[in-house]
Records
---
Amino acid sequence: MIVVGLTGGIGSGKSTVAALLVERGAVLIDADEAAREVVKPGRPAYAKLVERFGAGVVAPDGNLDRSAMAAIVFGDPESMADLNAIVHPEVRAEIANRLASLSGSEHVVVLDIPLLVEHGGQDPYGLAGVIVVDAPLDLVLERLVKRRQMDRSDAEARIATQASRPERMARADFVITNTGTLEELEEMVGRAWAWIEHLAAHAAGDEGHSAG
Ligand code: ADP
């Protein structure tokens, strides 16, 4: 198994790249999806969030009310820190579990992790490398407004809460510049896939070396 991180700001094209990597045979672990999983009723983070923030964060159907939760922490650093302190360790454990269930396999695992940079750049996952999907701000805004029907100011606000492009680039081992057509993006992903295969061959060589 080889694990490669995939990150990029909102609207960069990260999800599109993830889907293209899956087409090539990668197994995808989506950190956002893991984060939704760990706050489901019955999971430890759920009980801790209700204890900390009250019954107001529970929706009528019993699930966590994500927009109520977001409204509480928005602009309140202390609440935000508490939320993160509850949820982040659970997300890390969830991802670690999923990785453990794949270890020993021959899989290429792509870990789609939007907050890799925001989390101080630590890597608890044994990433062989990190792919960053990058696009300039004006193009990102255009995609979010035109293709995702986001309000321009909402899109700008979302971008402002994220790591900056230079911060993200500093973490990159392989950059996919997504400024062209989707066909061009596909070609770039092909090059990224070749790079991953190169890493995997290296890792296998190292294992053989240390074992032998
Ligand atoms: P992210 O996951 O980084 O937020 P997405 O992959 O969802 O971004 O891409 C945002 C939007 O832009 C989607 O509608 C996607 O289809 C579109 N898109 C991404 N890359 C390109 C491209 N090179 N050309 C045209 N549209 C693109």
Note: The radius of gyration is 19 Å.
---
Amino acid sequence: MGATHTEGVYHVVIVGSGVAGLSAAVYAARADLEPLVLEGPEPGGQLTLTTEVENYLGFPDGVGGMELVQRGKEQAERFGATFRHGVVERASLEESPFALELSSGDVLETRALVVASGASARWVGATNEDEMMGYGLSTCATCDGAFHRGDDVLVIGGGDSAMEEALFLAKFADSVTVVHRRDELRASDIMARRARENESIEFRWNAELSEIHGSQETGVTGGTLVTHPAGHPRARLEDGKSVETERVDVGGIFYGVGHVPNTEFLAETSVERDETGYLRTEPGMATETAVPGVFGAGDVMDPDYRQAITAAGTGSMAALDAESWLEERALEEESTPAAALEASQ
Ligand code: NAP
């Protein structure tokens, strides 16, 4: 790493400032580890894109996503955590202290590392999506839905995120069409029922978006849908099978097709990741990764539950595990022959 080492060695650096990172920061700060939280490209994480959180324990009337993370940050700061804007480009984890190279070029050193870098919205790969993202194409209905008052819009996906987006958009849009690549939703029964019962929401089964129409000047003006009665039409098209193609006029398109974990900065390290990039941690209730001293928390290591409350839970576990690891390491260092000699002199 050719960049400048700007500070001393931290006890623990937490990468990510969503619920998992904040919870880890509260625990690490209360243990007097003076953690540094690197806020990442989306400070506050995915909750900042949510309006109301109804299922976080302790808030019977719900709580705003932004408010929840803001309160978490204040709580961590109260115990001595510090926050810094910064995105980790590369990590060097051969031995502790570990080195983290930030996009600014600065390098930070830390004895223990908590990776709580979360997951980002997945894109579907439709033609023109790079150009149109932010111009009528969005991955966040709660952020951009209000721009589509009176529009017809598409929501892509069949999981809880897509249902949530569709239900939110139904408050503003004239019509919402959920486009799903199979004929069966992945969403939970309660979310699926709410969407099906909403009169503004329609479903297009066995369909996928292949192209987005419009320009940055006009915004989204439509999309091309491909359909095959057996589902997964784009894969069939790639296999040379014939699919039905239809152009639809819409003023907005929302992706709700899941997330990808933000672990690219660990690509050159020995931290193990699964085939989709999720951190592999030790089996059972553990946050340890394949590299001693590196711990995972939140959505970056959890492809299954992905809830704010579980992220907070694993965040606290990662901080407790980091604290134990640092203590064990300090004891080991004290009992080395060199340390014993020093103590006896
Ligand atoms: P998900 O459950 O993984 O669903 C993703 C959906 O997108 C699936 O229907 C999938 O189709 C489809 N999809 C994926 N890639 C696609 C592509 N390239 N083109 C077209 N369609 C594609 O993700 P999620 O909905 O974000 O939910 C993630 C987790 O968060 C779940 O555990 C969920 O319960 C939870 N969650 C809960 C709530 C809530 O309760 N309020 C809200 C949001 C999320 P297939 O079904 O064919 O795979």
Note: The mean pLDDT is 93.
---
Amino acid sequence: MESIIRDRSLAKSGQQKIRWVDHYMPTLNAIGDSLKKEQTFRGKTVVVSVHLEAKTAYLATVLSRAGANVVVTGSNPLSTQDDVAAALVEDGLTVYATYGCTEEDYFMYLHQALDHHPEIIIDDGGDLVGLLHTSRQDALENLLGGTEETTTGVNRLHGLDKAGKLRFPMIAANDSYCKYLFDNRYGTGQSTWDGIMRTTNLTVVGKKVVIGGYGWCGRGCAMRAKGLGAHVIVTEVDPIKAIEAVFDGFEVMPMAAAAKVGDIFVTLTGDKDVIRGEHMKEMKDGVLLANAGHFDVEINKPELEALAVRHFAARHNIEGYELPNGHIINLLADGRLVNLAAGDGHPAEIMDLSFAVQALAAKYILENHGTLENHVYVLPHTIDTEIASIKLKSMGYGIDTLSAEQRNYLNLD
Ligand code: NAI
């Protein structure tokens, strides 16, 4: 089946981007070498539905070199990079993804990917899994299982699992230490600010930054905002996370109060309606609203549109909304995850870990599907430590090893 991408002639730029990240992904490279040697995925079809930029393309390439028939699609209409998609097609992979496609086309691409009846899926946010439980149950035919990249997708999987409706085993790749401790915290922390800064070309220093949600992503984003010189305010719904934020040195208050003082708002909760019309009415003139949570539901855009007397393109990827009081509210990247829709996503060194987890999770499914039930699993801790050991070595760090006496003292055996 023919790929659907924007323009195959963009391949050269995409190949350059993939070569660049390859150099900074030593863990995935080491794992990829052994998968290639074993031809682990020979004859298996793997559908990858992850934000289609260079690091994802490199993961797809690693799986392809390990023998898989890899079919790639995006996981958000605004995060696909057309040149990267073209590079993959040039390398013989099948791709269904275009930047800025309609919601309808986005789902059509997912359908087209599922038409390949995969043995393994790599999902990011749960849209692929959603289809496999509704209109595309025909594509369950060969499916052994899959892996899920992000918190929101894992939450959706747990919903299906609790209801006894999950139709195949899924690995919560997000819940491996080598994923969320680094990707959600340090990856989102850096790339969210990269997206905001390159899109606005404004300062962060001296600004009041409001971070909605102090989970793994929120922590990283708050930490980096502080490092950039911002005054950081956190909003939360969980009293324990709120205490953590206070002890980390941040102000904590409800969004209703934060709305009146903030200059830049970033939502990272996985929840909906974190910033609503009632908050927008209270905001200062010229504020920036950005979301880094998986779906574009954290900032209530329909309420913003309903409140506004007019809206206009303020800058590439920024829409300005004028409220009746004359204040302008600037929405970045249409409320979609700002680090990917207005940037290149997480740094390569971070995705080195996340995609090492994904590659080994796919292998785990292949080798263990016979014993796995239709539930959500986390990879064994030994896989996490294997990945961490390769990464640590590649970074030039050594650590101590426990002696037999120490292991015994710690009751580890
Ligand atoms: P998490 O579960 O660790 O943290 C979410 C936090 O938000 C929790 O502390 C929760 O109490 C809080 N929260 C929930 N509703 C809230 C509300 N209405 N107001 C204030 N706080 C609220 O989740 P994690 O891992 O930090 O992920 C957050 C979101 O970011 C998810 O949608 C996830 O899929 C996404 N994500 C995005 C990435 C990116 O590249 N932009 C990377 C990784 C995750």
Note: DSSP finds 17 helices and 15 strands in the chain.
